[in-house]
Amino acid sequence: MREAAVGQGLLGILGGMGPLAGAAFAARLVALTPAGRDQDHVPALLCNDPRIPDRSSARLGQGEDPLQAMLAGLRLLERAGASLIAIPCNTAHLWYEQMARRTRVPLLHIVEAVCDDLERLGARDPIGLMGTPATLKLGLYQEPLRARGYEVIVPDELGLAQCVAAIAAVKANRPAEAFEPAAACIRALVARGARAVVLGCTELPLAVPHDRRDEFGAVLTDSIDALARAALARCGREAAVPATA
Amino acid sequence: MREAAVGQGLLGILGGMGPLAGAAFAARLVALTPAGRDQDHVPALLCNDPRIPDRSSARLGQGEDPLQAMLAGLRLLERAGASLIAIPCNTAHLWYEQMARRTRVPLLHIVEAVCDDLERLGARDPIGLMGTPATLKLGLYQEPLRARGYEVIVPDELGLAQCVAAIAAVKANRPAEAFEPAAACIRALVARGARAVVLGCTELPLAVPHDRRDEFGAVLTDSIDALARAALARCGREAAVPATA
């Protein structure tokens, strides 16, 4: 082997939240890497363990706290050789500080990755924001976006219900049923003036296929791809524009 | 958490061969699981480390032996809590016995999974066989298929070159360029009488999208999906027919 042994210097991925988003992150990381053969890709280890209690319920006071389960997953990744960790779940980032304090290796932050992606895309505000009830209510994105000078538009009650329906359909393995509610929420945000929309839950990019991203008249930023781009940048790799998304 | 702690009783996945196939296996495992929410899915750990030397080159005497790197990946999965391991790479199974002897947890066998899938699909022979030069030359599938009573048709020189081109395009992140050579090989096998075709390299299912599988007039069996179905069966889960492939 060329540089290092298998199992050393891995990008750890704390997935399972949900599991399709975790697997999709691993796939998009590969697809966005400039590579001509297997050995050119970033070594990665995906812990796709879905037994972590629901993040949104917990944050809204209705369920078990997921922190211990997330820390168990992070420890598994650290022990197995991760030197950097990505967490493809926006809601999990409500516990970011608690996780980062107890983890020896750096944790990427999905909100910073999305904010950087908005700049890469040259997005102009107002920025429409989609996500889970917990992230929208607790302001995971609102403050960082405003700190970068963006005006933010959040969904109304109907829009929030559409986000919830789209996310639930993806988690129930029915992605085709997720498109319409997600699209309706995007359209409503654009009708209210949004010039860019954050797909700020990692199920939402799976609800809106890449080949349907152009039909909304707004820039869409995809929190799975943004996090993959951030990971590649930290690994010294510039993301490629894939021939096919 | 309900049944077990995060990191215990995981399905280990020795991926990286190639990395898109490893990630696709993780995604198809999720998509094929009957589940209504995150916590219903099979806990999985994907070691997607592409630094394993090329399997086909090594078997044809032109490259470094990948066995030690594969064993390092298997040990990582065992130490991290895997209780069953799947290897979504057909060519790697040329080292199956050597890996199984040195691994404490059971390793699924992709060829058995594909043979079981042919029975599930009610496939009739002759069976056309696609794969890497090493698996076709060394007969990874031919003997097991004949042992189950199937007549086998292997690609001619042009068909083998088409397999190689399709596999290389997927590994180079250009899946759209992989379709035509893969399709040409399938068509030629069908023209020679094949009533079913084995996509017997885990890059090949990525070359032929699910929504184009019906246009060949033959049953296609997908070694990624077959292995995912075998894993689900061993976990006591019957694979669902996904609403969208």
Automatic annotation (TrEMBL), chains A, B:
Keywords: Isomerase. InterPro entries: Asp/Glu/hydantoin_racemase (IPR015942), Asp/Glu_race (IPR001920), Asp_race (IPR004380). GO terms for molecular function: amino-acid racemase activity. Signal peptide: none annotated. It comes from the Bacteria. Gene3D superfamilies: 3.40.50.1860. SUPFAM superfamilies: Aspartate/glutamate racemase. Pfam families: Asp_Glu_race. Belongs to the aspartate/glutamate racemases family. PANTHER family: ASPARTATE-GLUTAMATE RACEMASE FAMILY (PTHR21198:SF7), GLUTAMATE RACEMASE (PTHR21198). NCBIfam families: asp_race (TIGR00035). This is Aspartate racemase-like protein. It comes from Ramlibacter tataouinensis (strain ATCC BAA-407 / DSM 14655 / LMG 21543 / TTB310). The lineage of its organism: Bacteria, Pseudomonadati, Pseudomonadota, Betaproteobacteria, Burkholderiales.
